[in-house]
Design brief:
The chain has helices spanning 7-22, 28-41, 53-60, 72-78; strands at residues 25-27, 67-69. By secondary structure, it is mainly alpha-helical. It has one domain (7-78). The protein has a two-stranded antiparallel ribbon with strand order 1-2. α1 (7-22) runs antiparallel to α2. The longest helix has 16 residues, at 7-22. It is globular.
C-alpha cells in the first residue's frame, strides 16, 4: 500500500511551518491549526510525530486566549 500527501497539502504544510518559524509568538488557535494539520500529515511520515510533542505541550500549557512563544526548541523541531 502506498500513502501520499497531495501537492496542495504538502504546500500548505510547508507554508504553515514557514509561517510559524518566522514568528516569535502566535495565537493559540493559529498554533492549534498548525499542529492539527501537521498531525494529519504525519500519517504519511510517521517518524515526524515525535517532533510535534513540544507544540502539543505548548498548547496544553496555555489557555485559548494566550499567545504562545515559539521557542528555539520548537523551531528546531519544525526544521527537522
Amino acid at each position: 500500500m502506498e500513502v501520499r500527501l497531495p501537492p496542495v497539502k504538502h504546500e500548505k504544510a510547508t507554508a504553515l511551518v514557514n509561517s510559524t518559524l518566522t514568528q516569535h509568538s502566535g495565537t493559540h488557535s493559529s498554533l492549534e491549526t498548525t499542529v492539527g494539520f501537521l498531525s494529519f500529515a504525519s500519517k504519511v511520515v510517521p517518524a515526524s510525530r515525535p517532533f510535534l510533542r513540544r507544540l502539543y505541550d505548548a498548547l496544553t500549557a496555555t489557555s485559548r486566549t494566550d499567545h504562545i512563544r515559539v521557542l528555539s526548541e520548537i523551531k528546531k523541531d519544525l526544521t527537522w
